[in-house]
Amino acid sequence: MTKLNEMTATEAANKIATGEATAEQLVQACLDRISEREDDVQAWVYLDPDYALSQARTADEARNSGKGIGPLHGVPVGIKDIIDTADMPTENGSPIFAGRRTNHDARCVAALRAAGAIVMGKTVTTELANLCPNKTRNPHNLEHTPGGSSSGSGAGVADFHIPLALGTQTGGSVIRPASFNGIYGLKPTLGLIPRGGVLMQSHMLDTVGTYGRSLDDLALITDVISIYEPEDAQSYTGSRGSLRDMLAQEPPRTPRFAFLRTPAWDHAEPEAQKAIEDVAASLGDQCETMDLPEPFDQIIDLHLTVMGAEDLAYYGEYLEKQTELLSDVIKERLEHAKTIRGDAYVKALLARETIYESLVKLLGDYDAVLCLPSCGPAPKSLETTGSAIFNGLWTYLGVPCVSLPKLTINGMPLGVQLVGMRGDEGRLLRTARWLDNQL
Predict the structure, then answer these.
(1) Ordered domains of the chain (ranges, CATH)
(2) Positions marked catalytic
(3) Pairing of strands 164-169, 207-212
(4) Is 92 left (phi over 0), alpha (psi -120 to 50) or beta?
(5) Cα distance between residue 286 and residue 278, in whole Å
(6) What stretches in the chain show pLDDT beneath 70?
């Protein structure tokens, strides 16, 4: 029998809704697992077991009193420590923000609470959601990185501490940890999930994403937190159907895939190249290998230009006023960003729509791009979080991406990444379900 803490969020929510389990039982099972494994995995920066159990008891009382319950009633969620929580510190992985507390929840956290979720605690992030490694380890092998910057969220879901977690992506900080930790991860269209109350690094890139143990889990939590945010110019205002409803549908035809090696291909490990090529080959006529058009040649540099310039805009003041509290890695990154010319930044912004239009034209009626989510499995090192080079181009374009935990190399997980068009998460997840069942 599957332990409560090892269930998918969808299964756990159903058991709580039907009275087969209580929120307190689920939270206690998660806490027991954390107690057993946290000294090794180190996924948490803030966790108050008594408060987590108090939330669970309140959820059970609400259900037992006959009150209406939400789709995540009683389900624990880990929150990346750059996302504000009114009742817990948010320290952004930096001594600059040590002890910082706010009196409000981020909009996505407020939506989780409204849906009945238990805010379990704050998961470890890298410093200011950048590249610097942190204390978290990969639960599949403690000598390997879990990826970053959403390190604790990815590791916590993978190690059965929590069934769901929130992460964020500016380069590859949702998809890469999903790949490295062997879990499902979704980076949605830019602006689908509100960013109010989330530490900003790049206005044009930052995207809140989700982790779970199944595609149903991703649809469940993403539906809950997809809210229009009028204060954010990037907030996605298109028609939003239910991802869960879309995921439950059979594809109207057998999905077709465009296999793209992308400009990052030469950075991939040979074993990873072969693994994803084998996936493409296994799909036969349903998958066509394609070359990206010329506008994509500079996309990696364009992403780095936007990220660097906006990183400096948000964090430059700390370089001037609190430099002693920044790591050398962050200081070097910000100093380099000072060399980015204004015209280069503007050109990088303007190029995005041209490149996106070329992608739409190239893909035609293909259902998804098939590609690597990372250069390979998680590196055997705690001095790096791995490269985001296979992710940054898609983040730059603002398109949705999902990683499926389908491959293994030398005993370590490697995901399969699918990429869709903006605003088309439903089709992407439905296509991912088909592929998930095939592999």
Answers:
(1) 1-439 (3.90.1300.10)
(2) 80, 149, 173
(3) antiparallel
(4) left
(5) 13
(6) 237-240
